[in-house]
Amino acid sequence: MCDKSRDDALTLNQQEFSFICRYVHEHAGIVLSESKREMVYRRFSRIIRERRLSSFSDYCRLLQKNPEQEQNYFINAITTNLTSFFREQHHFDYLRQHELPALIRNGSHEKYMRIWSSACSTGEEPYSIAITLMQAMQGLLSQWDVKILATDIDSNVLAKAKQGIYAKDKLDDLSSEIKRQYFKQGTRENSGKVRVAQCLSKLITFKQLNLLHQWPMKGLFDVIFCRNVIIYFDKDTQQDLFARYYDYLKPGGLLILGHSENLGSFQSDFDNVGRTIFRKPVISAQAQVV
């Protein structure tokens, strides 16, 4: 009762809201508009209660005083993690029907494939990619060096993704064949839950990564998923990220965006091969001119 009374008494003034917006933008690149004020109030009221603070000003001072201690917790609270298995199904259909068969044909000697899920949230996206790989490659997978890198800024969702345990109703839209082959049903105290099959888990490496910071990966990727995250950044940050994604793609590699996202001025640097599916040209326009 005391905690609820304290929440009811909290107010978020314009100065506090502006500070939080600046802090989010500086540390995560996310742009918060006035329409997000209620979300900020709701999520940070919980933090204030857990920290036993009395006001938003107290929390703003805590962020200034102990940024390293609070930053990870702050980012986890503000990031949005709405996802599902095979969200935007057409992306996975394109992989299975077109891209993966072409990579298998063209890589028959090298047998090396890398895919990056760059905002993997609670793991549904990379596990959907892994299922698609299993379906497309079937008996060939053991002959290839195939890895999926799954990254996210939020350490909490990464922990859930690594665990690979989901509520059973998360699979409601999946076929009975996919459920049977790639998920194990929980029993007793785990009734109502499922765990992803080990054949999927062993394909994926989960790592925490802030897209605004240095990217430690040294190799290039055949496919990069960057879905439903670009929309949270300002235009300059978006263009910087597209330039970096371009550099991390193999010639001919795919960049896959969310349904409401576009490449902006980078549209001319990629070929559009499907709904929000873009291919880095094998030979750049500059190279052709030379």
From TrEMBL:
Keywords from the named record: Methyltransferase, S-adenosyl-L-methionine, Transferase
Any one GO biological process: methylation
Pfam families for this protein: CheR, CheR_N
Domain of life of the native organism: Bacteria
Catalytic activity: L-glutamyl-[protein] + S-adenosyl-L-methionine = [protein]-L-glutamate 5-O-methyl ester + S-adenosyl-L-homocysteine
One annotated GO molecular function: protein-glutamate O-methyltransferase activity
PROSITE patterns cross-referenced by the UniProt entry: CHER (PS50123)
Enzyme Commission numbers on file: 2.1.1.80
Residues annotated for S-adenosyl-L-methionine binding in this entry: N81, T83, R87, E125, D152, N210, L211, R227, N228
Annotated ranges, domain CheR-type methyltransferase: 5-283
Entries under InterPro entries matching the protein: Bact_Chemotaxis_MeTrfase (IPR050903), Chemotaxis_MeTrfase_CheR (IPR026024), CheR_C (IPR022642), CheR_MeTrfase (IPR000780), CheR_N (IPR022641), CheR_N_sf (IPR036804), SAM-dependent_MTases_sf (IPR029063)
Broad class of enzyme this protein falls into: transferase
Described function: Methylation of the membrane-bound methyl-accepting chemotaxis proteins (MCP) to form gamma-glutamyl methyl ester residues in MCP.
Name of the protein described by the UniProt record: Chemotaxis protein methyltransferase
Organism phylogeny: Bacteria, Pseudomonadati, Pseudomonadota, Gammaproteobacteria, Alteromonadales
